[in-house]
User: Fold this.
Amino acid sequence: MGAYDQESVRRFFDRFGQREWERLERDVAGQANYAIHRKLLAPEVQPGMRILDAGCGPGRYAIDLIRAGARVTLADLSPVQLELAAGNVRDAGLEGHVDGRHEVDICDLGVFATASFDGVVCYGGALSYTRERHPGALAELVRVVRPGGFLALSAMSLYGILLLLGVLDIPGFLETMPHHLDLGDDPSALPGCVMTVQGSPEFHQPMALFAAQHLQGLVSAAGCDIVRTAVANPLSWGLVALEKTAASAAARETLLELELALCEDPRLADRGDHLIVIARKR
Ligand SMILES: C[S@@+](CC[C@H](N)C(=O)[O-])C[C@H]1O[C@@H](n2cnc3c(N)ncnc32)[C@H](O)[C@@H]1O
Assistant:
């Protein structure tokens, strides 16, 4: 199955470069994903807060946090993404609100003192890339939040991936399933966390996929109370008619409205690309 390979993840995001910024604006699905993540984050952020953006990528959420009045510490495994984040924050005229920039792995946040942030954002899947190391990474993310502070986390949805089987060109995937997803001997007893198989071309990087309840359980066991949960983006993730939808302004607007209205509906909790958990440290 293969263990977490930090160097492979770093290399991928170094090469991915600017495309990581474009991911959240390139199509309706990306736009919905971004809008939902923002919706969940906004109520947590108060002016003057010190927030760690862990796995900050090119800094989209860091800019939002600063605009909401926070001071932000940028952290990422990829030096290229960190450089992009610094550049984007600078271009937005906000660099005076950045407390630091750190090339770190969320598996070891030893560079930061315990309880040193009012909030930690880890959006977009860094936790999933840590694979079997995810419990340790989660413990680190929680450690650096002060008691009463918030954790805003998102990770890849297991059932979101399985539901794509209905819309992708899938026979090849199914024929070679053991090369892509490790569903174990008895898929009727699927665990709450499933690893993609190292080397599968179906996934841009090997990762851990989570069931919503399982992820919430992990966050709770790591010392947090769950405040809110959501899924991004329950309706447009894998939508077959994405391009057709995007061509109609009215259709696009309705889809985005529905996504925002339904993202916290527990009946959709296991769909979509990312599972989002907002939690408060006990
Ligand atoms: C999909 S991007 C998300 C970026 C940004 N948070 C967003 O949502 O737009 C994932 C980011 O996490 C970083 N990353 C992946 N694994 C990480 C790890 N173990 N520690 C720190 N950063 C990591 C990657 O380099 C990349 O910049």
